[in-house]
Amino acid sequence: MGLQLWNGADGGDLAERLKSWWNGADVHDRVVVVGLSDGQLQMLEQKLGTEAAGVYRGSSGIAVEWLPRSDIEFQQRQQKEHHELLLILQEALIKIADTDTDLASRLAARVYVNLKTDPNGQRRYDGLLHRFTGVLHRRPKEPVETAPPLASENS
To answer: How many domains does the chain fold into?
Structure first.
């Protein structure tokens, strides 16, 4: 991870320099620009087309942390994958609950704990997906039909 500290009061075209860095920086790189005014911050956000990752206000101006484009795109992909995994887990829990409510409740509790301890979805829930897949593959595709009740039982 490379952290660079830039002075916003330095001469030169800060917006072009920042845009060049933003487009080409590695996922783990960061830039903090210090000594900005509110107007400069708004102008930079407009030129980049994105908001700053962090804005810190102090007595001598504003310090702004920027994430590179690759990191923002990575986070968006990760959130999309996380959402898709949660939908798969939800579908699996619904299907499992029809045949094994105890297993469904235990797996739902594990999902809940994982979400509480890892709200950003860094875990991939591989173990849970494997468990769901294994359980679903062992289940019959069609529900097993039972014989209709005898007429004597209905009376």
So the answer is: 2
